[in-house]
Amino acid sequence: MAYLLSDLSQSVFATLGLSSTLNILEIPKNPAQRECILLVDGMGVNALQLSVNNHPIFSQLASFSSLRATFPSTTSTSLTSLGTGNDAGRHGMVGYTMRVPHSGTPQRLLNALKWDERVDPYIWQSDETLFERGKREGISVSHIAAKRYEDTGFTRAALRGALYRGANVVDELVNEAKSALQKERSFAYVYINDVDDASHRDGIGSPRFHVAMAKAAELITKLIENLPSGTRLWITADHGMINRDDFCVLGKGNDLLRNVDLLGGEPRVRYLYVKEGALEETKSQWEEFFGEKVQVLTREESVHNGFFGTSVLEKNLERIGDLIVIANGELILVEPDREEFQLAMVGHHGGITESEIAIPLLTQTI
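The structure corresponding to this sequence follows.
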């Protein structure tokens, strides 16, 4: 059975005795009650397969279970699922860019990672996070990541409640994690994004990618060497990555956007917010134009098929596109006003290929 990141975080907090959580992964009790999740952004199973021969640490760790990224397989959705223990349909971070309902004419998109201070993060994602709940019940909860992420709108929406320990290099990350886990009944979440950044820039398997994987291996090795005895370390990711080999610039030499008021999502999964009355026409147009290169779903079809979890809260429905276009193979769907930027990126994610959704779950007790 494949599990999700929300299942991992719920299960880890359940072993720490957090009320109203489920140990979905059936993780054994850890007598020391020290738990650490290291999330390496972009380190899918395919990234490990390319790196295991170069870095023995990856094969020395125990593989606990198979995990799957959320839909879309994108950082904002996955990390919010980890932080809240909920599906996207409940937490409402349904993509990289998504419509802000009732935001005027024309309506606005929210870029989840860059944020928009007109959007209150506590209202946008209103459920208590696992971090907040853990802190309230006496668990020492820490979030260790680059200093620049500390007070972002996304952190306040998805990962609030932990003591934020800013750290920019490997030794700082290790020292902060070591300090965070001194007490029994403690939890530390550690995050790095080097693999994701390198893969976007130069592609998975590139020299820059291998440098980033070497940093991840160094961090894991030093955490194992330095974390307090009894700490259980979990290593995972938010998504994998594909290297594009095909693209379409939407609206350039085609009329694909003629009935689209707002274009959201990202190059592997597009949200189309369609003019009133043009839904079926637009769906047929995109299916005819792309054929088997894409899958086109209505919002209702995506919800019915469980793409966003078991249910979607009413307040989150309008954030999802009227149509969802999922690219197959290694195709990307490029925004006309961001053509240069998006075509400069080699690596992409968001879709539903195995390369994008298969993520590892490795573990070691120290």
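The longest strand covers residues 34-40.
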